[in-house]
Amino acid sequence: MTFPRPHRDDVILAVTAFLGGVLLWSLGLYTQSSRNALPPWAALVPLAVMSAQSLLRRILPLAMLAIATAALIADQFTVGSLVTVVVFTDAVYAAVVYSSPTAARRVPVVSGLITVASTITLLAVFQEPVGLLIGVIIGLITLAPAVTGSIIRNHREAADAARLRAEQTALLAEMDRVQAVTAERSRMARELHDMVANHLSAIAIHSTAALSLNDPRTTEEALGVIRENSVAGLSEMRRLIGLLRQSSDDNEPAAAPTLAGLDALIAQAGTNGAASGLTFSLNDRREAANSLPAPVELAAYRIVQESVTNALKHAESGQVEIHLSHERGHALTVEVNSPFGRRPGPRAPGSGAGLVGMRERVALLKGELTAGPVEGPPGGPAKIWCVRAVLPVRDDDKEPST
C-alpha cells in the first residue's frame, strides 16, 4: 500500500512554520514567562510536532487535529511559541475543510462549546475580566478558524455543484443537438424517399416494359411516361433542395404537398399503372368545410403517395382504392386498398423504407397505422393489401413538420 505524498503547499507550510518558530525562539520572543521546571529549548518540541502535523493536514485532518491539540497543550508548559499557536489554528481550519461532511459540521460546534465552557470556567476561577479575555483568545484560536473553514468549504461545494450543473447542462444540450440532427436527417430521408420513389418506380416499371416488349408503340408510350416522371421527379428534387437551402430568416416557407394534390397524384398513378392493369380511384368523404393542420395534410398525402408507389410495385392487376374520411372533432382516416396476390417478384426493386417512413410519420402525430393483407370485399379479390392510418386532428395542432 502506497502512502499518499504530502501536498507541496503543506511541505512549504511545515518548513516555514518550524524555521519561523526557531527564529522567534532564538530571539527570545516567547508567549509566556520562563518556566523553572523546563528549559527554554523545550518549546521547540511542541513546535516541531505542530509543524510536522501540517504535512498530513489534507490527508488525515482529524488525526492531525488531535496531534496539534496535544502539542498546543504541551506548549503551555514551556516558554511557549507564537508560531505553535498560529499553526494550531490552521489545523482546526484544515479539519473542517478537508474532513468528511459529518466531521466538518461537528468541529465548529465542538469549538464553540469549548470556547463557551472555557470562558465560563475562567470567569468562575479568576472572577475578574481577565478570564473573559482569555476566553476570547481561546475563541480566536479554535472557533474562528473552524467557522472560516466552514464558510470556505460551503463556497467550494457550491462551486462544485455549479460546475456539475454546467457540465450536465452542456451534456443535455449535446444530447438535444444529436437528437435534433437525427430527427432532421430522418425527416429529410422520409421526404426524399416519398418524393423520388414514386417517380423512379414508374420509370423502372416502364423501362422494363419497353425493353421486354418489341412493340414500337408500347416503347413510345413507355418513353413518354418515363420522361413525364423524370421531369416530375426533378421538380420535386428542386423543391427539396430549395427547402434545404432556405435561410432561417426567410419568412416564406417552401410549399408542402396537401390533400388538394391527390387528384393529380391519382391521375399520374393511373398513367403509370395502366401497363400493369392497375386502375386507381379516390373516395374523399371529408367534410368540405373542415380544414386540416399542415402536418396532418402532409402526412396523409405522403401515406397515400407511398401506398400508391407500393401498389405499382407489388399489386396484382385490378383497382386500387383510396378512401379519406374526417369529421370535425375526429381523426383523419386514410385507407388504401390494393389487390394482393402472389407475384413472382416486384415490378421495381424496393428497400422497405416506405413502411418505415409511414410509421414514423404516424408516430410523430401520435396516430395509428396498420398495413398487411386482409380478406377482400364480396365480389372482389380474395385478399387485398390494406394500409390504414388514423391521424389525430386537434384544432390547436401547430406542429411544424412531420
Would you kindly provide a written description of the structure presented here, covering whatever features stand out?
The structure is a single chain. The protein is an alpha+beta fold. It folds into 2 domains: 8-170, no CATH class; 258-402, Heat Shock Protein 90 (2-Layer Sandwich). It is 61% helix and 10% strand. The chain has helices at residues 8-26, 44-53, 61-75, 82-98, 101-126, 129-212, 216-245, 262-273, 294-314, 353-364; strands spanning 278-284, 318-325, 332-339, 368-375, 383-391. The chain has a 5-stranded mixed beta sheet, covered by helices on one side. α6 (129-212) packs antiparallel against α7 and α6 runs parallel beside α9 (294-314). The longest helix has 84 residues, at 129-212. It is rod-shaped, with a radius of gyration of 43 Å. The relative contact order is 0.06. Mean pLDDT is 82; it is low at 397-402.
Secondary-structure element pattern, one letter each: HHHHHHHHEHEEHEE
Largest sheet entry? 5 strands, mixed
Mean pLDDT: 82
Count of separate DSSP helical elements: 10
Order of strands side by side in the largest beta sheet? 1-2-3-5-4
Strand percentage, roughly?
A: 5-15%
- How many separate structural domains? 2
> Runs with pLDDT <50, length 5+?
397-402
Describe the structure using short key phrases.
402 residues; 10% strand; rod-shaped; 61% helix; 5-stranded mixed beta sheet; Heat Shock Protein 90; disordered C terminus; alpha+beta
